[in-house]
Write a structure and sequence with these properties.
Blueprint (H helix, E strand, L loop, with lengths): L9 E7 L4 E6 L4 E6 L6 E4 L7 E7 L4 E6 L12 E7 L6 E6 L3 E7 L4 E6 L4 E6 L5 E5 L8 E7 L2 E6 L4 E6 L3
Antiparallel strand pairs: 1-2, 2-3, 3-4, 5-6, 6-7, 7-8, 9-10, 10-11, 11-12, 13-14, 14-15
């Protein structure tokens, strides 16, 4: 084992296998950092700030985007957060809020060919989606009867696979058209 980079408070990481860059959200500097997997100790801080509680970074090299889920600020008088899903180009330009939520978005994945972003909502039993072309969004409820904790999510061949740690299960969900 080796320490790849010291003195960071990285919560979520993502790798772009095409450029061989590693991206991470740094809670101390409130930024996204990109570093080469090939050249040790070479990194660049992308000028992406004002993040609150980033849970997941997802890099889609074909789309040229970094996506992240952010629980944002806690809503007054509740246990809920004002969740956001944002994106930025791989060079840090073109930041955009894609979705505002009153839930806790967690895991992220993309259908690159269909240009649809999917996310798991940590405590609602829903999978959300956002079409990057039409800008339409929605969610699908999985209809759980007891509280759940959906964290991991991955897209593959027309299905979204989601982990649920409270149900001790994996779910396979057909995607939207």
């Amino acid at each position: 084992m080796e320490i790849f980079m010291d003195n960071v408070n990285a919560y979520s990481i993502a790798i772009d296998p095409v450029s061989r860059n590693l991206y991470f959200a740094d809670a101390v500097t409130d930024s996204i950092v990109v570093m080469s997997l090939d050249i040790a100790n070479v990194s660049k801080v992308l000028q992406v700030h004002d993040m609150n509680r980033v849970w997941e970074l997802h890099v889609d090299a074909k789309l040229g985007k970094i996506f992240w889920s952010d629980w944002g600020q806690q809503l007054a008088g509740t246990t809920n957060y004002l969740g956001l899903i944002e994106s930025v180009n791989l060079d840090g330009s073109g930041r955009s809020v894609l979705v505002n939520l009153t839930t806790e978005p967690h895991g992220l994945t993309t259908d690159t060919e269909g240009q649809v972003l999917y996310w798991s909502e940590a405590s609602t039993g829903k999978v959300g989606w956002y079409n990057l072309i039409t800008k339409k969004s929605g969610s699908v409820s999985l209809g759980f009867k007891k509280p759940n904790l959906m964290l991991g999510i991955e897209y593959y061949a027309g299905y979204v696979y989601v982990t649920d740690t409270n149900q001790n299960s994996l779910h396979k969900i057909p995607t939207v058209d």
